[in-house]
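Predict the assembly for these two chains.
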Amino acid sequence: MSRVKELQKSLFAGTTSNARQFGMIFTLVAIVLLFQILTDGLTLNSSNLISLVSQYSYILILAIGMLMVIVAGHIDLSVGSVAAVVGIIVAKVMQEYDLAWPLAIVLGLLVGAVIGAWQGFWVAYVGVPAFIVTLAGMLLFRGMNQYIGSANTIPVPEGFREIGAGFLPEVGPDTGYNNPTLLLGLLVCVAVVIREWRARRTRREMAAEVWPMWISVIRVVVPLIVIVFATLRFAGGRVGTSFPISGIILGVLVVIYSFITRNTAGGRHIYAVGGNARAAELSGVKLKRVNFLVMLNMSVLAALAGMIFVARSAASGPQDGLNWELDAIAAVFIGGAAVSGGLGTISGSIVGGLVMAVLNNGLQLMGVGIDRVQMIKGLVLLLAVALDVYNKNRGHFSIIGSLMRPFRRAAPAATTTPIESGQEPAKTPVAG
Amino acid sequence: MSDAPVLLEMRGITKEFPGVKALSDVNLVVRKGEIHAIAGENGAGKSTLMKVLSGVYPYGSYTGQIIYQGAECRFSDIRASEQAGIVIIHQELALVPGMSITENIFLGNEPGRGGVIDWKAANRQALELLARVGLQEDPDTLIKDIGVGKQQLVEIAKAFAKNVKLLILDEPTAALNETDSQHLLDLLRGFKQRGVTSIIISHKLNEIAQIADSITILRDGRTIETLDVKADGVDEDRIVRGMVGRELHSRFPDHTPTIGEVFFEVRDWTVRHPISPDRLVAKGSSFTVRRGEIVGFAGLMGAGRTELAMSLFGRSYGTYVSGQIIKDGKEIVLRSVSDAIRHGLAYVSEDRKSLGLNLLDDIKTSIVSAKLAKVSRRGVVDPVAEHRAAEGYRTSLRIKTPTVDEGVGKLSGGNQQKVVLAKWMFTDPDLLILDEPTRGIDVGAKYEIYGIIQQLADQGKGVIVISSELPELIGLCDRIYTVFEGTITGCVERRDADPERLMKQMTSAKKA
């Protein structure tokens, strides 16, 4: 058992939350393989992977913001409505005032910021629980969407649609593959190698024990295999399709926000506030400012997600963003965040979101109706969090132990590393 | 009184917690119809003894016998002891603020049949009970709408509803003002006349001397003596002698202080209670700290030492009314914790688990958390610098852990306290305020922490130590201020410090 733990520790360089992620990645891989078999290879087929990314990228973008909200000890129920109202405003200004689409995107983000400031004000400075503020926001902004759009659907222009429905362009020599996607894959491969190299260097500078070389090799080679496989899949799809633009936006956001939550003082403060607000305050953390910014940020990301969705569906309508908050919240909790705040990672939430996405997608491919898909998703959420609570009550972390027991003798690492570093852009969608 | 029949006898009670013997061979004899006080310093074992008696610590978790009304009792929980007529009223009242007086009195004990409450009977009984405790208040009033003094009376009424024969009051007057306290004491006298026996735990020795028939003194988990107030002519001084009468062993590292000039001064500091604005938690407090000096603050629980310290530390407690802080000759205004940290103040809370640490964090994250800027560049934390800083404290403070990546939740109390100390040492403070720095940690770790405190002073910092253990203050501090109900009642130099003198100043408002 301790062997397994040690290995897992050196492979994931981590603490308990990473250990939780380890279990999630394991689950994700298992689900992907299961559906790959059940759907006769349809799951990992080029066009399915591409549509999976473009179909779920906006939910995953929401999950990034939601993770920070939940880590700070709050919740945001309004994201779907915020996305909808931003979508309709942007569509309307482009249709009626002929605003250029790049400016419309900027406007959309600004509207998101204003809405976020509104909600953040009530949560942080007045002290109304976020559940109430955003429940009110959910109604308020849903109504505002229908009021502004007169409950109609408003189409958006061609250029704007790129952010939701666009792909990397076909350029360069005819290789039989989409060249920019190949290049992107290559960049990600290089990033993985550099990252591992830098991690080793940091350990050495800390004068700490550096893990053996073979572990580094596994930590690099396994992701590389996955990336190469995925790159070829994404680049080798139907001509005109390749890696979606929305996936690239998502990847960039994942990298940025992982960095913020992990490596910056501001990110530390979010965890401190969620872990023990009074202690954080007595350590000089500006509680109100942190809460305000977290809520503000969530609405900006909701605005972005809304615009990507509108771009993908080519029009903004009154039913946009319905129940998105639930998907985003589910992703975060499946990804190992604690209900009471203070725990959780961006990469964990992305993995959690992918578990839901693959489950959804796989079941649909198998022809399971939406009714039963919902039932299964609900049970998965309940089980994942129940397992977490159970482990917490026992006072120590054992999800891995329970997962690994049957595999104790087999090397567990090789099959489970693929998306260890959720913050590498193209890798997260890849594993799906 | 000594000829009255014995109601309760606790014989040879010993209670151990992992690593600590909280009670060893304690004996207590309470006679029918008397008011019996239990006195002792904080940590002497008073509350533990009462928890044994009331079944909080069930039979089997302690050794010894409880003989009550002539028969041995083996209480399995609080309900069992209440059934026998033993009711304990804790310092923190167990009332539901949003429910009415009647509802609270009968909570868990509702009159009626088959789960249906007979409100008529309940209200009638409530009125009777309220009359017995002398509380004139509509029984439908919500608990949150009456003052803490009246809440205390509701608690007692609740005890009567359970047919109490032996009433135990743990620090009943700690939160009460003078008038309410007096009323409560009168009430206890009235109960005595009607044959109710009471056990009272109190830090206010004047009250004990005034009301009790006999006093049992505990010290370090042992019974020291039982005094008969009238026969022995007991006064406050006599009680104090019993409570502190121990010699100081060499529990402190040798230290020769190098004391410089005054660099920190507080003048006329007055702070209001955050919820009840008519209560002042600090009343015109003034004090000074010199460089290299360890200054103690002695006072009983609830005297307002923590409140004073936290209000100085960026107004973290209460509402600021008036007063000045002068540091290095200049007045400074600290409106927030970050102001305080910037001006070189550090406050180590008495409650490290809920106010000092984020138990989800690992050691290194905790240590740098109060001054992240020191290990970051443009807001980005440098993991190498962070690790190096944490490693430095791990070795210098001897924090027992394999690596600084471990979670702080897993550490022992002493090591957690070292992490909190490291966290505040990392902010390079000029003045450290340590609130109960050795609470709940074992003797060995205490010794180490005393050493750290002395080192900090030797570096020219000022250190304020708030402690409820007098021997600790006397052994460690160069100067000790005494606090009583929000007022600084005196200042004693190290050479003049003796427990009796301090205890006197801590228990009366008279300025020494």
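Chain B has three domains: 6-244, 250-344+429-512, 364-427. The mean pLDDT of chain B is 87.
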